[in-house]
Every structure is written in C-alpha cells, then in structure tokens.
Amino acid sequence: MLDVLIGLIVLVVSTLMFRYAAGTLSWTAPNLVSIVYYYSFLLSSFIGALLIALGMDDYYMIRKLFRPEEYRQIGFAVVCFVMIVFPLSMVVVSRLCGFEARQEFRAYLQKPLSPLAGATGSQVFYAFLALSLLSFAAIAYMIWKTPTIPVFALLTGTDESLAALRIEASRHFAGNVLVRNIFAITLTPLLSFIAYLFAELTHEWRWKLLFICLFVGAVFVNVYDLAKSPIFFYVMMFLLIRIYIGKTRLSAAKLALYGGVGAAVLVGMYTVIQGVQDVATFLSYNKGPIGRMILAQIAPMFLHLNLFGEALPFLYGKSLPSILTGLFDVENVRSARLVMAHVFPERIEDGTGGVLNTLFVAEAYANFGYVGIVIGTLYVGVVTQLLYIGFLRLPKNPLFLSLFVYFSINIPRTLVGGFTDFLFNPTWVLLVALFGGMALWLRVQGDLRAWFAAKRRITDEG
Fold first, then answer.
1. In this structure, are residues 365 and 308 in contact, taking their beta carbons and an 8 Å threshold?
2. Which pLDDT band, with edges at 50, 70 and 90, does 285 fall under?
3. Are residues 329 and 345 in contact, defined by beta-carbon separation less than 8 angstroms?
4. What's the rounded Cα separation, in Å, for the pair 127 and 438?
5. For residue 178, with 0-12 CB atoms within 10 Å meaning exposed, 13-18 middle and 19 or more buried, which class applies?
6. Pseudo-torsion of CA 205, 208, 214, 219, nearest 10°?
7. Sign of dihedral through CA atoms 185, 186, 192, 193?
8. In 224-328, which residue ranges form alpha helices assigned H by DSSP?
9. Any idea which UniProt keywords this protein has (predicted)?
10. pLDDT tens digits, residue range 315-371?
11. Mean pLDDT throughout 420-442?
12. Integer Cα distance of 399 and 396 in angstroms
C-alpha cells in the first residue's frame, strides 16, 4: 500500500508540473510536452514500474533479476525521481525564459500557416524537389544494400522467421547506415509533411504531385522492416500537422474511433508477423501489445540497474556517441545491447535479439551510476523544454512546422530509447543544419533581391 500511496502522490505532483510546462495536457490538443508525459512517462514507464514494485507484473524480463525484491523497489524509486525532477527542470526553464505555455501554445494553434520569408515559389519548389530526389535515391540504395526486405518477404511468402529477417535487415545492412537512417528513413517522411503543407498553402498541382510521391516513399520506409511502431508514429505526425493548421479538430468520439482502428490494426500486425494463435493470452496486460507498451519499455531499466555495477562494469562513457568515443580510440558500445547479450544470449545467437531499449536514465546509469541519473534527468528535461519553447516562437511556416511535429514525436520516442542521443544525434544535427540553413539562405536571397530592386528604383528615379 505504501508503494501505491507514493505512486499517487508522485503522479499528482508530476501531472501538475507537466501541465504547467506544456500549457495543456488535453488529448484533443497534443503537443511535444504532453506527448512526453502520456507516452514516455505515464504509459511506457510509470504504470509498469508500479506494477513491478507491487510484484503484479509476472513479466519474463523481471524474472531475470537477482535480488528481485530489492531492485523492484530501487527501479520504482528511480522512475518516481524522474517523474518529479524531469518536469521540475522544465518548469524552471519556463520561468527563466518568461514562457507562458498556455497562452503561447494557444496562440500558435490559431496562427495561420505562412510562406518561407524572402523566397519565391519556384525557388522553394526546386530546392525541395532536389532533396526529394536525394531521398528517393537513398531509398533505392537502402533496398540495394539490404540483404532481404522483410515486407517483400512477407508479401511473397517465406519460410524464414520474420523476426530474424527484421534483425538481419537492421544489423546486417551492407551500406552506409547514416545514408539509410538520415536520407531514406528520416528525410522522406519529413519531406512528405513539407510538401503537404506547401500544397495546402499554395494549392499548386506540382506540390500535390510531389506529396503523393513522397507519401508512398514514406509509407514504404516505415513498414519495410515490419517494425510495428514507425507507421503509427508517422500517422500521428500527419495528424498533428493537420491539427496545427486547423484541418482536423479532435473530439472524444474521434479519439475513440482512431484508437479503436489503431488497436485493431496493431493486433492484426502482431497476428500476421508473429503468428499469434491464443488471442486471449495475447491481449493480457503483460503480453502482446499491452505488455509491450506498459512493461517491455520499462523492464529493461530494472535490468540495467540490476546488472551494471554488479554483473557488468560501468561503461564510463563507452556508450557515448561514436563521434566522441572515436576521439579517444574507445570502442562504442550501447548498454541496451550488452543487457540483451547478458540476459538473453540465446537470442543473440539465433539472430532474433537486438537491443533492450528503455527509459533514458538507464543508459545514463550504465555509464555513470546514480550521478548519471541525476544529471541526465536535469539535462534532458532542460533540452526538451528549450526545444518546445523555441519551436513555438519560430515562424509557423511549412519547414519549421514539419520540424516541430517531427521532434514532438521523436523526442518522446528517444526518451524511451536511450540517453546518448540527447548528447549528439547526427540525424537531428543534420536536419536542423539542413533546413535551418535552407531557410536562412532563402531569406538572404530574398533580402538581396529586395535591396537590388530598391537600388534600381532609386537609380531610375534619379
């Protein structure tokens, strides 16, 4: 009962702080911070951690703990700490920046979509057409260098394990991983949003045609390896885009409808890909998609706390981004992979095991112990709120709105993926540099045109 009481107090305090930092936690007006609250913390971390602390999980990963009663409580305490300190750091950042979340988010929703400053229509279109061609080339390269495309194998029929094919497609890719991850998997969906917004803004057929082509490419890169979550996150981003430009207004009935359809599709995907036969067991709280959401994301954090410093040595920075470890000639290793190899070595051997991703503080702990948890929580909370404030204060044009929606979905996903991506993420850096540089270049071009036009006018009048 004490765990339940502590959990209720933590939940109430955390919810109030998240609502202050986000401006609203309404399901009909989702935003970066509210998605972090509902997805990364409440659904993926807190509920499962409480069940584990109460011994009500009956989950296969938790059975791998040694001294389980001790580490059930330690893991729950860590989650409670993050639930309080993370939003607290966001509240402090808001106060320091003079950020009134409720008013500024409401104003952003009401603000109309605007064109890129200083750019002509043809300039913008041909610039994004060139990026789209680069994206399509990267998709072709990805198909060429992937040993077997799992979705093709599913459609044509195969005797091989689809789970093994997924791991093979991910870990045995024969090409440049950055080209695949950045220019095919990430850039294509983002460009599809930009093309859609320009089509809505200009009503030009060329933007509509470009959007259709990019949409097909985006759907493919989100389903090619049969991963179940990427296509759902893509649909969520598209829905956010429409909400932010006023094309879609959510209601309780629509949310129920979308949720029901999404759940049915998810169950269907699990049934086809994993060959589920016992549906009742599959839909229990600790198995199938439900267990995947509330327990599979947080259970590896308990394993991290249990293993590092006991069965495994602390990494002391070895899982930091490879661009940093390479400077010191240190081999890069992810803690989630080490935990998988230690706890489920048979999966590594048969090719069905990848990584055990979990709440970001697990990787911080694996590197620097409890100090890593404290500093990591403060750091990531500050970065998240600064991003939220920054995007709400940027112009609401197709480029910045698409990036805002991209981070609104990918920050929550990364929070339950690892810590080091918040230190240096080459995909995020490249996207910000690419689109920020493009916006700056188009703005400078426009200012120069205006200056030369004014100079010619003065000359003609003189």
1. yes
2. confident
3. no
4. 9
5. exposed
6. -150
7. positive
8. 229-244, 252-274, 279-282, 288-294, 299-307, 322-325
9. Membrane, Transmembrane, Transmembrane helix
10. 988 887 777 777 777 788 889 999 998 888 887 776 666 788 999 999 999 999 999
11. 86
12. 8
**What does the pLDDT read at residue 261?**
79
Q: What residue ranges do the domains of the chain occupy? A: 1-110+298-393, 121-279+414-451
Question: Tokens 């689109």 — which residue?
Answer: 435
Residue 117, both tokens: 């400053």
**Residue 175 and residue 145 in contact, taking contact as beta carbons nearer than 8 Å:** yes
- Altogether, the residues listed in the chain come to a count of 462
Query: In the 8-state DSSP scheme, what is residue 184?
Result: I
Residue with tokens 């994993």: 274
Mention every residue, 6+ apart, whose C-beta is less than 8 A from residue 372. Answer: 361, 364, 365, 366, 419
pLDDT per position as a tens digit, 219-251: 999 988 877 788 889 999 999 999 999 998 888
Token reading at 407: 């981070």
Token duo for residue 178: 């950055």
**C-alpha to C-alpha distance for 192 and 462, rounded to whole angstroms:** 48
Instruction: Look up residue 422 and give its DSSP letter.
Output: G
N-term to C-term CA, the chain: 86
CB of 183 closer than 8 Å to CB of 142: no
Residue whose tokens read 């990591």: 376
